[in-house]
Write a structure and sequence with these properties.
globular; four-stranded antiparallel β-sheet; Rossmann fold; alpha/beta
Length: 233
């Protein structure tokens, strides 16, 4: 079984859509007001902006982790109010800014295999799929290690690998280069480029403009909840 799916004829191009979205953490203090945005399945989008601009909030709204106070967010034409988080998780993989927040298993192998066991995959299939992830994300030899003692780069790669093994069609990565040196950034970039070639759509939330311009074909700049510009690269 292939770990990755590619786009099929007839797939919805408008993968995620915001319609007049309003959201706030505090009463009378909107992060977003009347936000309209469309994210297409075949593109890689970078979201940039200063701290507190709403980048992470936007990503969590896209993934259904947060729900709008007003308006709707649609994933393949279905409102996030109508979808459960497991249903969204089969479509969208979300990488938190701190990958440790996603870890709960005792070993790297268990972290990668957990969702497959939950879905009752056969053991041989699980072994094959985990092996592919270990090789792709350069984690061979670390199968029995605790995720919490890995280097920052290894944690990032494991978190992405664990997200991808659930076979999502789209990825949302929140500050994936945090704590990575140039060599590890280059490793991550090569992995993401391979995923892009396989037809997996992405939104990358980042302060690292040099990194995102190496992979993104769309750039959205946010400041204080407002779209400053939205352009093709």
């Amino acid at each position: 079984m292939d770990v990755y799916r590619t786009s099929k004829a007839g797939d919805t191009l408008d993968f995620i859509e915001f319609r007049k979205v309003e959201f706030n953490y505090q009463r009378d203090k909107n992060v977003f007001k009347g936000l309209n945005l469309i994210f297409q399945k075949e593109e890689t989008t970078a979201i940039v902006g200063p701290n507190g601009s709403g980048k992470t909030t936007l990503g969590k709204l896209m993934a259904g982790i947060l729900k709008p106070d007003k308006g709707q967010v649609f994933i393949q034409k279905k409102s996030t109010f109508q979808l459960t988080l497991p249903e969204i998780g089969r479509k969208i993989g979300y990488l938190f800014q701190n990958p440790e927040k996603q870890f709960f298993a005792n070993t790297v192998y268990d972290e990668l295999s957990f969702i497959l066991k939950l879905k009752s995959y056969e053991e041989k299939c699980i072994e094959e799929m985990v092996e592919k992830q270990l090789k792709l994300f350069q984690l061979k030899g670390l199968e029995d290690s605790s995720p919490f003692i890995l280097s920052q780069g290894e944690k990032q790669r494991l978190a992405i690998g664990a997200v991808l093994i659930n076979q999502p069609e789209y990825l949302i990565l929140d500050e994936p280069t945090t704590g990575l040196d140039k060599r590890r950034k280059d490793t991550l970039l090569n992995i993401l480029l391979k995923l892009k070639e396989r037809g997996i759509g992405m939104t990358i939330i980042s302060h690292d403009y040099e990194f995102v311009k190496s992979i993104a074909n769309r750039l959205i700049a946010i400041n204080r909840g407002e779209i400053e510009y939205d352009k093709r690269l």
